[in-house]
Structure formats: C-alpha cells, structure tokens
Amino acid sequence: MLEFGLDENRLEAGCDEAGRGCIAGPVCAASVILPKGINLPELNDSKKLSKKKRDILRIQIEQEALAWSVAMVWEKEIDQINILNASIKAMHLSLDSLDVEPEFIMVDGNRFKPYKSIPHKTIVKGDAKFLNIAAASILAKTHRDEYMVKLHDEFPHYNWIQNKGYPTIEHRSAVIMHGMCQHHRKSFKNTDSQLKIWNSKTL
C-alpha cells in the first residue's frame, strides 16, 4: 500500500519522468497534486502496471487530481544539455504549468535542482512508495507513449508502436538499416558494434 505523501496537510506535488533511457523521442515529465482522501487502490509505479491499467488510471488521475501537468523536452535539447538536465528541465516545466502552486515537491530518484523557493525531497523508487509520485509516473509514461505511437505511422520501420523509442535489438537494427531520423537523440549510442557486425553478416 502506497503512502499518500510526506505530510497530507500540505500541498505536495509528486514529480517523475519517462523516456530517460530512450534513444529516440522526448523525455516527458509530469507533476501531480492529489487531494487528501483520494481512493485509487490500484495506483502504483507505472512499470508495475499493464498498459490497460495505466490508461484507466490516467483518466482517473486527470479527473480527480487537484492539479496535474505534463511537459516534454525534445531531442535536440537533450543532445545540447544532456539527458539528466533535460529530465529536470521537463519536471520544472511541468511544475510551471500546474494550476495550483505546491508547498512541497517530491521527486522520484536522487537528482533534482531547486524549483523557485519551494522545498523538495528526492526519493529513490518514490514511484513505488508514494501516491503522488506514482500518479506522476503514470501520466509521464502514458503521455509519452501516446506521442511515440503517433510517430509510428510516419516511421513504421523503427516499430515505435512496440518499443516506444527504447534501445531494443529491433530498434537498433532498424537504425543500422535505415539510419537515424530527426527524432533520434544524436548524443546517444544508437547502435551496438556487435549488433552491427551481426547485421552485416545476415544481410
């Protein structure tokens, strides 16, 4: 059972990101402020839930949250400022867009930069411990996945409808065969040398 937050008597925003380990597409972050007494018993770390459950919970979170927001930082900027800074920037942008300003910020992981003068706490595996961070993880994941599925129609050979831009063998093989497109992160290792050798032998 996940805890509501660190202090249920203050407005706490949970923050998380999705897409940090991808070789294509944006990094997406979400911020969520939940009302005290919210009842979402299936809410958990997005990685522990099926797509169907994530999609259902996304609707419930967006309907019942006091405030929520999602923001993306795109591939070119990821290449310019690195993925860690891009992930933190996406979180800051999502906080910027909240309709309600939080009194405290709870962040999944162990790295963050101060936002305005609002106190914060980083929590390793926070998405499996606190409802507000778990809610943010679900919104970040589902919004990013939705975006990558839309891109699939334009770039079907990368099969983003299945891998969402993560460095699967199929995705890396497609990069070797078709090259990179504008949605790939050029500062990432987009191919594997052993895979490239294997592909050259099988072509």
What does this structure look like?
This protein is of the alpha/beta class and 203 residues long. It folds into two domains: 12-152, Ribonuclease H-like superfamily/Ribonuclease H (Nucleotidyltransferase, domain 5, 2-Layer Sandwich), CATH 3.30.420; 156-202, no CATH class. Helix content is 40%, strand content 15%. The chain has helices at 51-64, 75-81, 83-96, 131-152, 160-163, 169-178, 193-202, and strands at 12-18, 27-33, 67-73, 104-108, 120-123. It has a five-stranded mixed sheet with strand order 3-2-1-4-5, sandwiched between helices. A hairpin with an 8-residue loop joins strand 1 (12-18) and strand 2. Helix 1 (51-64) crosses helix 4. The longest helix is centred in the C-terminal third of the chain and has 22 residues, at 131-152. The protein is globular. The N and C termini lie far apart (51 Å). The relative contact order is 0.22.
What are the salient characteristics of this protein?
203 residues; alpha/beta; Nucleotidyltransferase, domain 5; 5-stranded mixed beta sheet; 7 helices; 40% helix; disordered C terminus
Number of helices: 7
* Widest beta sheet: strand line-up: 3-2-1-4-5
Strand content: 5-15%
Number of domains: 2
N- to C-terminal separation?
51 Å
CATH top-level class of the largest domain: Alpha Beta
CATH H-tier superfamily of the largest domain: Ribonuclease H-like superfamily/Ribonuclease H
Mean pLDDT: 93
* Unreliable stretches: 197-203
CATH topology of the largest domain: Nucleotidyltransferase, domain 5
CATH architecture of the largest domain: 2-Layer Sandwich
| Count of beta strands | 5
What is the helical fraction, as a range of percent? 25-40%
Shape: globular
The value of Rg in angstroms is 18 Å
Structural class: alpha/beta
SSE series: EEHEHHEEHHHH
- Profile the largest sheet: 5 strands, mixed
